[in-house]
Design a protein that fits this description.
alpha+beta; 1 helix; single chain; four-stranded mixed β-sheet; 45% strand; two-stranded antiparallel sheet
Length: 82
């Protein structure tokens, strides 16, 4: 139903793309990505699987809050992600 990835600065683009493609191939309906860049606020992206892959539905950073897409409505505040 839902996959959650936490990415550090050490995760490269190829690794990220491979994981996202794997979730799409497995038909995982929702994907949340938390990015933890060095010396910056955490970022959150919420995706929903469509006909041709994932489409981003939400993006928040710098202490913002949002209700994440998914099987259950959950409020995510990026200030709480570190």
């Amino acid at each position: 139903m839902l996959a959650v990835e936490v990415w550090s600065p050490g995760n490269n683009r190829e690794e990220r793309d491979t994981k996202i493609a794997g979730y799409a191939a497995a038909r995982v309906p929702y994907l949340w990505v938390v990015e933890l860049p060095d010396d910056e606020p955490a970022r959150f992206r919420g995706y929903r699987l469509g006909e041709s892959g994932y489409r981003q539905e939400v993006y928040v950073a710098a202490g913002e809050a949002v209700v994440a897409p998914g099987p259950v409505p959950i409020s995510v505040n990026t200030a709480d992600l570190r």
